[in-house]
Amino acid sequence: MAAIEIESLTKWYGRTRGVEEVTFAIERGEIFGYLGPNGSGKTTTIRCLMGLLRPSGGAVRVLGERVAPGRGTQHARIGYLPGDFRIWGRAKARRSLGLLAALGSDGSTARRRELAARLELNLDRAVGDLSKGNRQKVALLSAFQHRPQVLVLDEPTAGLDPLMRQAALDLIRETAAGGAAVLLSSHDLSEVSAVCSRAAILREGRLVEMAPIAQIIEQGEHRLKIWFRDGALVRDVPLARLPGVRIVEQEPGMLHVAYQGTADAILKWAAQFPVDRVATPQTSLEEAFIQYYRRPPNAEGETAKGGRS
Amino acid sequence: MSRAARPPFPFALLRFWLVRILPAWCGIALLIFLMQIAVSAIVHDNEKVKTMLAFIDMLPSIVKSALGGEMLRMGNTAGLIAIGYNHPFVLFLFMLYAVGTPTGLLAGEVQRGTMELILSRSVTKTQVYLCAGILTLVGMFALVLVMFLGTVAAVNIFTFKDRVPLDVFFRIAINGGLLASTFGAFALLCAGTFGRLYAAVSVAVAFLVVNYFVAIISNWWPRMAFLKPVTLFYLIDSSNLWAGWPLRNMGILLAILLAAAGLGAVIWHRRDLPL
What is the ipTM of this complex? Predict the structure, then answer.
C-alpha cells in the first residue's frame, strides 16, 4: 500500500482551475519530486493532500486513510513544511515549535534539541528576530520534530546557505531511508535531481510527466558541441533536413546544437567539415523541465496518469 | 478504508491562545473593576450624588438614556450604582473583548498565515473553532464576574445609606454577560465566515453599533419606540431585571447565541480558508 495516494484529484476555485485529474502515488521510503512553474497547481495539490482545501473531485489517501478536509486525523504522522512558512513572530522558536509538537504527538523535546543542534539554530530567540535562513530552519524543525511517516515539503531549502542546504537534504534522505514517504515540491531542480528517485511535472493544473528522474532527463533534448579545425565557419546549418535539431549557440569554429532522438543525422552532416573535436554536455533536469514548457499544450488534455514505474 | 479516531482536544492550543489574550483580558478586567469602585465611590456620598445628578440633568436626554434613563434619580442608590454597568465605557470594554477575541484568534491566525500551520497538525477545524469560542464565552463571563466583584468590593469599602441589593446586580451581571456573549457569538460567526480580519471586525462592530444606537434612539424618541424589540439590548430590559430572573429573555439570548455560534461552526468547517 502506498503511503500517499492521489486519485483523479480536481480542484476548481470558482471558474479557475487549480488542478485537474491529478493521479499519483508515493511509496514508503520514496522521495518524490513535484515540479511545475508558479501557478501550475503544486500548492493546491499539497493543500488538498493536507486536508486544508476541499477537493472538487477525486480522492486523496494518506497512510491508507482517506483525507477528510478539516479533520486532521492522520496529521500526527505527517510533517508539513508550507512554501510560505509563517509562524508567530513574537514567540520564541521553542514555544511555537512546542505548540506544534503538542498538537497531536507526544511533544517530546529530545528530537527538537537534536535537530536544532544539527541545524545550528538557537531556539530561545523570537522567530521575528531571526534571519530568513534561520526561519527556514524553524520550518524544517516543525516538519521533522515528531518523526513523521509522511513528509510534505514545499521548497524546504529556500533561503538556506549551501552548508545548511546540504544538511537539510541529508535530513530528507535519512527520513526517507527510515521508511517515510516524501513529497518534495521545489523550484530548485538540482535539489530534486539530487534526492528524488521519481518526479511528476505539472503544467496548468495537469500532470504532464511522471517518471524516474533519469528517464525524464533522457526524454529531453541532448546536447552536442562540435569544434571545427582552423576555425572553419559553418554558416548555414540545414535545419530543414535535420529534424529535431536546434542551434543553441554558434561561433566561428564552434557549433552547439540540441537534438532529440539520435545524433546520427547531425553527425553525418558535420562530417563533411574538418571536425577538430566533439563534446556531449550532460542534459540537466532543468533543461528537460524547460522543454516540457516549450511544448505546445496537448489539445486532448495532457495527463500522465497513475502508474508507478 | 480504515478510519482513524478524532484527534484529542487541543488543550495546547487553548493554553497558547489563553496566554496570548490574557494581558488584554486582565487590562479590560482591571478597568471594569475600577469603574465599579469609582461609580460607587461617587454615589455613596449624597452631596456628590446631588452634584452628579445636576450634571447629568444638563446632559442631552439621549445621553441620559445611554446612562440608564429612569434609574438615574435621587434616592435610587442601586440605580445609580448601575451606571457602572450601563456606562458606554464599560459597554465598550465588553464589546472590545467580545469582538476582538474571536476575530483575532480565528480570522487573525488565518490572515497571519499561522492557521495553515495549526491545521497541518493533528487537530480538526471544529476543535480550533471551539477553542476560540470557549475563550470568548468563558472570558466574557469571567469579566462580568469581575464587574460584580467590583460592586461587592465597593459595597464593603463604602457606606451606603440604603441597602444595596447585590442579588439584583448579580442578575444584571449575568444578563449583561449573556448579552455580550451573544455579540461575541456573532463575532465568532463573522470570524468563521470572513477570511480577512478587517472584514470580520467591521461586520461584527457594525452589528454591535447598529444595535446599540437603535436601542438608545428607541428609548429616547417615543416615535421610534416601535424599534425597541429589534435590538438585542431590548432583551436585558432593566425593569425586568429588578423584578427577578427574566428567564424568557435569557432563553431567547441563549438561543441566538447558540444559533450564531453553531452557524459559524458550520461555515468555518465547510469553507476553504484563504491560506
Answer: 0.81
